């Protein structure tokens, strides 16, 4: 891992990078690797996917920080989708990405035949057992992102018996279906869920009718995964990479989750355990980003009814994401790229990359033209008082007061 | 073109003219996603199949985590020698297990889900399974011209193909129990009497489609489309595509199932489009031809995001991050990597707005956020240029 001063092994922390901005934020807050999508072939058609120059810039940034970049090509291809694939994968090879994440066997074979790219199997392929892992390995896959239904104990067995690298989800939203086996959007919305068009119909409320009575429920909606208390189990099982879901989520999400899990893993490297008072702090930090109620899902035992999230969205927030630092002019001011408005008199928390948060009391606000304001507006840049220890791309948040 | 169908009760073997079928499918509660046969019932049917010289195949289409797979492997060992003409497999683990452990068993690959919409993917499995591969079950998301191309290629490998022409369309499959938590112990007792097989209908205000059939059993929860796949009108086209076996899955129709199967077989033998259309009106459920004629499930993708706010690589300078009317436009300079100067006074810019407009401006002044004027800026810097009307945040700036 990046920190060479301690020798204890910990898994790679793999964060989502929905944009170049999120890539830089996630890596700056401690992610060992990020995954991102190009403008074709990923499963997030609505995302701000990367151009090849953005991928190049992202790879340079990541490698300069000792991190890796994986590119997802995990849609299920129709024959016409192969048009342009050769150029794209050769470009990826040329900009020195670290691996591609693929689910379609035809694409795996095509990439193996035409490039030297390392191939990771996407969770979309629903690899769930030792025999399956052995078979994918035969196809040239070096790492398997296991299905979310697999427990850590089973994952250990798969790694040992199949002899492949194993990646597991540690945090984020969950598909309730076996990934790659849900086509609700295809038939109800005309959007292929396995080519990037998932409409999240599983999050809808449904009326269930058994012929005798009707019940309303969000029965197909899952709570979000949180594996912070299972890090020791992941390490003991030798899981190679811990993946955070959420390319569509905000920089605040990518940064906060990367910060928390990297801090926890760094603590382990130093102490060889997670018996830290900080555990409660880490858990509290994870509640400060927008999320559904948390579950450990299937990581320890098969997920039961307690993993069903019986609500449309989680709106209860203790913190709100203000934005991020766009510029620091030493001893003069800090420029904040504002996503959520704040006003004079508020106290903001800025999260440095390697330290605890810095508080800034907002005594004045100016726009970039130097005009005074009492309150900011979203989608604009504003200057706030300078405080020490703040960098560009630091996240800014504020406690919600009623 | 022959038919293949499920046998859910021993009496069906007597009532169906089995000479019309290439074989029958045995779907057990143990190995099949929504199978209802007990092992005893399966054994009884097998005996009768043998007596009637009807070929039978075992469906093992569940996906399995390692812990569960161990149990299913052990179970399978008990029944592997029952004379199945093939095993229908979906989980790659089960495929590998059968390949390595039972060298005389033929394999039918359920490639109707997952990434099997291109012939390259199917060929990968063909190469892995080799001579043991007997049949490929094609996805119903393939359009007829693609089915035709695939069938021609697959036939050249000496492998058969199968397509669902009549039956439920599976939309969602999870190993979790999602329905039973909604019910009381008393309700569940009733379900228990039904062999832990819960059937309900689901509807959402957020979807115009009402009454999705939902099943929960020991393998998890399954949701099906509100309309059944119905391709009887196109049996002539399907035959012309080169499909070897058409699958009829009307297990959910209960009493009507026999007449539907009989009618399908009759249409297979003496195809009549008008009759097939007319029969659709008598079919007990709503129907769809799905994606048989065209699969356009990617055409809406371009509406999912504003392409105009996505950068182009050529000439890219940066993104507008702040606008104050009559004062400035702030650009976060990102482009022109590896060059000392990214932007300088005198450059001409093309500004591409999120609402599709293009504006052009020549830079006369570059101002830092502390008010200092400069002649040029490097990548990564935040810089102000004089205001240009009609420009908003997220506008992309390119060198003209």
Provide a descriptive summary of the structure in words.
- The complex is a heterodimer of chains A (402) and B (400).
- By secondary structure, chain A is of the alpha/beta class.
- Chain A folds into two domains: 296 residues, Aldolase class I (TIM Barrel), CATH 3.20.20; 81 residues, Translation factors (Elongation Factor Tu (Ef-tu), domain 3, Beta Barrel).
- Chain A has ten helices and 20 strands.
- In chain A, strands 1-2-3-4-5-6-7-11 form an eight-stranded parallel beta barrel, surrounded by six helices.
- The mean pLDDT of chain A is 94.
- With 400 residues, chain B is an alpha/beta fold.
- Chain B folds into three domains: 242 residues, TIM Barrel (Alpha-Beta Barrel); 52 residues, no CATH class; 92 residues, Translation factors (Elongation Factor Tu (Ef-tu), domain 3, Beta Barrel), CATH 2.40.30.
- Chain B has ten helices and 24 strands.
- Chain B has an eight-stranded parallel beta barrel, surrounded by five helices.
- Chain B starts with a strand and ends with a strand.
- The interface between A and B is large, with 107 and 97 residues.
- Strand 8 of chain A pairs antiparallel with strand 9 of chain B.
- Most residues in contact, chain pair and counts: A-B, 107 and 97 residues
Tell me, what is the CATH class of the largest domain in chain B?
A: Alpha Beta
What order do the strands of the largest sheet of chain A run in, or round the barrel if closed?
1-2-3-4-5-6-7-11
The end-to-end distance of chain A, rounded to whole angstroms, is 43 Å
Helix content of chain B: 25-40%
Instruction: Let me know the average pLDDT of chain B.
Output: 94
Instruction: Specify the CATH architecture of the largest domain in chain B.
Output: Alpha-Beta Barrel
Overall CATH class of the largest domain in chain A: Alpha Beta
Low-confidence stretches of chain A: none
Number of helices of chain A: 10
Tally of discrete structural domains of chain B: 3
Kindly estimate the percentage of residues of chain A that lie in beta strands according to DSSP. 15-25%
At CATH's second level, what is the architecture of the largest domain in chain A?
Alpha-Beta Barrel
Query: What name does CATH use for the topology of the largest domain in chain B?
Result: TIM Barrel
How widely separated are the two ends of chain B?
62 Å
Supply the helix-strand structural class of chain A.
Answer: alpha/beta
Per the principal axes of the C-alpha atoms, what is the gross shape of chain B?
elongated
């Amino acid at each position: 891992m990046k920190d060479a001063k301690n020798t204890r092994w910990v898994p790679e922390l793999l964060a989502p990078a929905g944009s170049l901005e999120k890539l830089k934020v996630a890596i700056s807050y401690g992610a060992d690797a990020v995954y991102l999508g190009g403008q074709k072939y990923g499963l997030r058609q609505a995302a701000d996917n990367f151009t090849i120059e953005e991928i190049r810039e992202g790879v340079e940034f990541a490698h300069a920080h000792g991190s890796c970049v994986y590119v997802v090509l995990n849609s299920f291809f129709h024959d016409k989708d192969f048009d342009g694939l050769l150029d794209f994968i050769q470009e990826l090879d040329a900009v020195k990405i670290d691996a591609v994440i693929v689910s379609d066997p035809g694409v795996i074979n095509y990439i193996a035949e035409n490039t030297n790219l390392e191939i990771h199997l996407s969770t979309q392929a629903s690899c769930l057992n030792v025999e399956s892992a052995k078979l994918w390995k035969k196809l040239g896959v070096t790492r398997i992102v296991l299905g979310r239904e697999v427990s850590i104990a089973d994952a250990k067995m798969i790694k040992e018996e199949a002899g492949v690298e194993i990646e597991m989800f540690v945090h984020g939203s969950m598909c309730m279906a076996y990934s790659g086996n849900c086509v609700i959007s295809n038939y109800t919305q005309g959007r292929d869920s396995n080519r990037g068009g998932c409409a999240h119909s599983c999050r809808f409320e449904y009326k269930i009718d058994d012929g005798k009575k009707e019940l309303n429920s969000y029965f197909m909606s899952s709570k979000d995964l949180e594996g912070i208390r299972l890090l020791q189990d992941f390490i003991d099982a030798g899981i190679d990479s811990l993946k955070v879901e959420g390319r569509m989520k905000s920089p605040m999400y990518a940064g906060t989750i990367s910060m928390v899990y990297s801090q926890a893993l760094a603590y382990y490297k130093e102490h060889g355990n997670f018996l830290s008072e900080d555990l409660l702090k880490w858990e509290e930090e994870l509640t400060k980003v927008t999320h559904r109620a948390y579950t450990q899902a299937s990581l320890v035992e098969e997920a039961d009814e307690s993993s069903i999230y019986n609500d449309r969205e989680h709106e209860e927030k203790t913190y709100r994401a203000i934005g991020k630092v766009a510029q620091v002019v030493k001893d003069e001011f800090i420029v904040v790229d504002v996503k959520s408005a704040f006003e004079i008199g508020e106290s903001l928390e800025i999260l440095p990359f390697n330290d605890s948060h810095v508080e800034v009391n907002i005594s004045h606000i100016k726009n970039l033209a130097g005009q005074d304001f009492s309150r900011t507006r979203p989608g604009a840049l504003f200057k706030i008082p300078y405080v020490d220890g703040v960098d560009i791309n630091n996240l800014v948040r504020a406690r919600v007061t009623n | 073109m022959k038919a293949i169908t499920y046998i859910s009760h021993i009496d069906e073997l007597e009532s169906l003219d089995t000479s019309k079928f290439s074989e029958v499918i045995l779907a057990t509660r143990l190995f099949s996603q929504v199978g209802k046969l007990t092992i005893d019932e399966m054994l009884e049917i097998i005996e009768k199949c043998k007596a009637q010289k009807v070929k039978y195949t075992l469906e093992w289409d569940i996906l399995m985590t390692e812990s569960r797979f161990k149990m299913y492997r052990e179970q399978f060992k008990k029944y592997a020698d029952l004379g199945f003409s093939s095993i229908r497999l979906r989980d790659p683990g089960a495929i590998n297990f059968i390949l390595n452990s039972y060298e005389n068993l033929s394999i039918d690959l359920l490639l109707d889900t997952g990434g099997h919409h291109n012939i390259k993917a199917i060929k990968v499995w063909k190469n892995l399974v080799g001579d043991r591969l007997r049949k490929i079950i094609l996805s119903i998301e393939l359009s007829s011209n693609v089915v035709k191309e695939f069938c021609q290629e697959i036939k050249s490998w000496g492998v058969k193909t199968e397509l669902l022409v009549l039956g439920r369309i599976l939309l969602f499959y999870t190993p979790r129990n999602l329905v039973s938590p909604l019910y009381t112990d008393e309700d569940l007792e009733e379900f228990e009497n039904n062999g832990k097989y819960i059937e309900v209908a689901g509807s959402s205000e957020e979807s115009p489609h009402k009454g999705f059939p939902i099943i929960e059993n020991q393998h998890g929860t399954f949701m099906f489309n509100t309309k059944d796949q119905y391709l009887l009108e196109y049996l002539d086209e399907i035959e012309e595509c080169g499909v070897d076996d058409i699958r009829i899955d009307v297990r959910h129709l209960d009493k009507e199932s026999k007449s539907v199967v009989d009618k399908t077989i009759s249409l297979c033998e003496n195809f009549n489009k008008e009759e097939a259309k007319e029969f659709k009106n008598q079919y007990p459920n709503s129907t769809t031809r799905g994606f048989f004629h065209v699969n356009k499930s990617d055409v809406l993708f371009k509406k999912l995001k504003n392409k105009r706010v996505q950068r182009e690589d050529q000439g890219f300078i940066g993104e507008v991050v702040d606008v104050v009317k009559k004062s400035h436009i702030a650009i976060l300079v990102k482009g022109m990597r590896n060059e000392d100067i990214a932007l300088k006074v005198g450059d001409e810019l093309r500004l591409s707005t999120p609402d599709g407009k293009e504006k052009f401006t020549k830079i006369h002044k570059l101002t830092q956020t502390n008010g200092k004027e400069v002649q040029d800026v490097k990548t990564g810097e935040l810089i102000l240029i004089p205001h240009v009307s009609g420009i908003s945040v997220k506008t992309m700036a390119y060198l003209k």
